[in-house]
Amino acid sequence: MKWTRRDLLIGLGGLPILGAVWWAGAASSVGSRKKRSEILEQLNIKPSLPPAVPGIGGEPVRIGVIGFGIRGEQLTRALGFATDEWKEEMRLAAEEDPNNKRLEDFESQEPLNVKLVGICDVFDVRAEKFINSFSTDDNKIKRYLTYKEMIQSGDVDAVVIATPDHWHAPMSIEALNNNVHVYVEKPMTHTVGETYTLREAAEKSDAVFAVGHQHRQTLSFSTARDIVEKGTLGHVSLIQTNTNRNDDNGAWNYDIHEKASPETIDWEQFLGSAPKVPFNKNHFFRWRKWWAYGSGLSGDLLTHDYDRLNCVLNMGIPASVSASGGIYTHNDGRNVPDVIQVNMEFPDFSTGSSQTRGKEKGMTFCYSATLGNGFNRPTILMGHDATMELGNRLTVWPDGASTRYADMLEAEKMLPNVPIYQYDPAATSTDAVSSATSQYFADKGLMWTYIDGVRVDSTFLHMREWLSVIKNGGKVSCGIKEGFDEAISAHMAGLSWKLGRKIEWDAPSQTLKPIEGIDFDQVLLANENWNIQPEMVG
Amino acid sequence: MNLNQNKLKASVTLLRIFIGWHFLFEGVVKMYNPEWTSFGYLATAQGPFDWFFTMLIGDATIGWVDTLNIIALMLVGFTFTLGIFERVGAIVGAGLLAMYFLAHPPFPGLTQMNVEGSYWIVNKNLIELVACIVIYQLPTGSYFGLDHLRKNKLKTQEQ
């Protein structure tokens, strides 16, 4: 039974193949891991984990909601209360599209220790919907006809304000003066003057004041802060943020309720400080289209983008702002622009430099928006060493001419078109696929969030943080300082567009540099093109 | 006839070794990368059996699924490159490929994710699966592989 040499060759011929393949597989795996960890070590970025907040213990926080429109409903859902109508709508949507997980997400949301006690809405239908949906035998919800009545009732600990912009400050101030906690939607104020009054009220009050910039809770932004602080991008000289919408809802032409009438809407109260005009459904439901009640792109959407970046960079109020644009896509009687470009200058700001001291300083923040095209233009931070795309997902590419990464680029350990860092805390699936193929994919944050179970709504996290601070003390991530920065910057953009000139900020005196003969608040509130063209109203 | 038989055997042997090579490499690469997981592939499963694949991604199961996948890949790799027990390997290989295929079937109407090339019903996974069937039908381990020694030994003992 002796094997010949020929037998052995035939029998063991597969062994060297096996050995070679094994060696190649091991080498490529270990090699690419080493290369990746070398880059990650160099970058030393810490993916953020979801914020842990102290629990909201004790008696439930008694909450009154002021304004139960689109956003008011969303905020109430973040508190854990959804109307039956919405649940039914979502159930049908999930039936049609199994990927629609909104109801499932809502139902798995952690309950908050709150009690809805009151509603104040000038439209009967909305107030009734609130009561019908949330009032129970052991918790009768009360309707208040005015916000003052609600705030002064002594029955509410905290209010959630989701009204048109011109009501944000008066309501917040009233609540703060009565030591009632406030969660107010953005923009924090409607005029420059109010911004100071509100700041004073918040500083004097014992109540907790929070502005509804929920994306401060988004994990990618806290990770982005770490990335920028570590000097990963080098000196950022330009930031581009954008709004791209191309639908009626996005252009604020919200549905007009069939039951809306002077009988069901307290029109006088809606108007408040706004010019007295006769009852107008269009104004009531689509108030964002007029400076009298809203502030258009600069107040509604620029504020989001500005605050997103302010939470990453903490750059504060710009030294100057110039804006241009017009009503180019929805000439339907509105007087706020639907296309706007806002350039904010930060001449003394720097995210750090990898080059000769003093060579780099200053940054432009460029916000570009149109309501007439939906092509997705991402937010981009452009630094000397790297570029970062910032969204729910983060991607960092090295720059071909980077000083910091020159050696790694030279050695081809980095390539300008290959991301050196990617982070997606909200990702569930598709990115896990790319993690198997992309050698530079850092997925720690991703798996953690998913294994923990539910995709969490950032508005929920923002509300939870506010409630936790109410109970346990501490600091909210978007309080009066951040709100002040946001409101002033947005007003500068609005003013610049309306006046067609540069608006400057005087940092030492914390005021806008005056322009002779111009009252800024009068300009902000001014309503050109006030007459509605009825035939354009859709 | 004999010459043709030999040509066929040589071709099938080559096919067997290359499939083994492919499986082995996939298995080794995954084994040496502790961060690898089939999570993404399974989570994005489409088609009539997506429920089955998404069932596998639970906290309790995903670790087992990953380990078994690596073991199965290596088993096919070993049996095919070494040329022994290749019929077992062929069954395991065909089973694995059937799962890969069904998780992301190139059926009309489904979006193809992370694939190079264009496919309609038939894709490379399915073709490799059929190749495994061929290996099963035409074992070549005794022609080139460890089986040669085993068979040879038996033969010698019989004599």
Automatic annotation (TrEMBL), chain A:
Q: Please indicate which superkingdom the organism of origin belongs to.
A: Bacteria
InterPro entries (alphabetical): Gfo/Idh/MocA-like_OxRdtase_C, Gfo/Idh/MocA-like_OxRdtase_N, Gfo/Idh/MocA_oxidrdct_glycsds, NAD(P)-bd_dom_sf
Give all residue intervals belonging to the Gfo/Idh/MocA-like oxidoreductase N-terminal domain.
62-213
> One Pfam family from the UniProt entry?
GFO_IDH_MocA_C
Domain Gfo/Idh/MocA-like oxidoreductase C-terminal, which positions? 281-348
Which protein is depicted? Gfo/Idh/MocA family oxidoreductase
Q: Which organism is it from?
A: Flagellimonas aurea
UniProtKB/TrEMBL annotation, chain B:
One Pfam match: DoxX
Q: What is its main location?
A: membrane
| InterPro entries, alphabetized | DoxX (IPR032808)
Q: Which UniProt keywords apply?
A: Membrane, Transmembrane, Transmembrane helix
Keyword Transmembrane helix (UniProt): yes
The organism's place on the tree of life at top rank: Bacteria
Recorded topology in the membrane: Multi-pass membrane protein
Question: What is its subcellular localisation?
Answer: Membrane
Does Membrane count among this protein's keywords?
A: yes
Q: Where are the transmembrane segments?
A: 12-32, 52-76, 88-107, 127-146
Q: What's the protein called, per UniProt?
A: DoxX family membrane protein
What taxonomic lineage is listed for the species of origin?
Bacteria, Pseudomonadati, Bacteroidota, Flavobacteriia, Flavobacteriales
